[in-house]
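Hey, resending since the last one bounced:
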Amino acid sequence: MKANEFDKKFDEGKDISKYLELSKARRHGQEVKRVNVDFPLWMIQMLDREAKRLGVPRQAIIKVWVAERLEKAV
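The structure tokens again:
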């Protein structure tokens, strides 16, 4: 199917899901890139305590706190 045909179906509100390969779908700007960060032991211990208190993984705490700080910086 050509792009203009696809666009027309979409614009007309027709179901285009059968033309999409959703297993490879990605949201722009939401791609993930792994990074390694070294923390002092005391930080890890405090992160783990907070994560346990909230019932979430350590990585979730780090992501939320970094995102909050970056949003304030903008």
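The chain has a mean pLDDT of 91.

Sorry for the duplicate.
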